[in-house]
Amino acid sequence: MLVTILFIFCIFYTSDAFKMTKVEENNYGMRNITWECEFCLSGCSLARYFVNDFYWRDIYMLGAEKLCAFISSEKIKKICDKYTSKYLPEILDAIGSVFVPEEICLP
């Protein structure tokens, strides 16, 4: 049963005849995009939100601090705390700048 469903999905996914297009303008200023593009745009927007939102940044920082707290060696724990406080915000900024839906999802 599962194989049949996957086979039908693959046919619909790969066939150009079944791709739906939208002619109206969307939030991204693109025209005539397929549902795959819309799905990609939505996914990238969600990923960008999870990286750039201050609430989620605080959650990531808290998680990294808790991870460092589990380290038994004090020397390694200090290094972990230093990297968490100094480099994690920079890494999140770099990742957030990569998630530009209009550049990743080209029609």
TrEMBL record:
<dbReference type="InterPro" id="IPR008139">
    <property type="entry name" value="SaposinB_dom"/>
</dbReference>
<protein>
    <recommendedName>
        <fullName>Saposin B-type domain-containing protein</fullName>
    </recommendedName>
</protein>
<feature type="domain" description="Saposin B-type">
    <location>
        <begin position="33"/>
        <end position="107"/>
    </location>
</feature>
<feature type="signal peptide">
    <location>
        <begin position="1"/>
        <end position="17"/>
    </location>
</feature>
<keyword id="KW-0732">Signal</keyword>
<dbReference type="InterPro" id="IPR011001">
    <property type="entry name" value="Saposin-like"/>
</dbReference>
<keyword id="KW-1015">Disulfide bond</keyword>
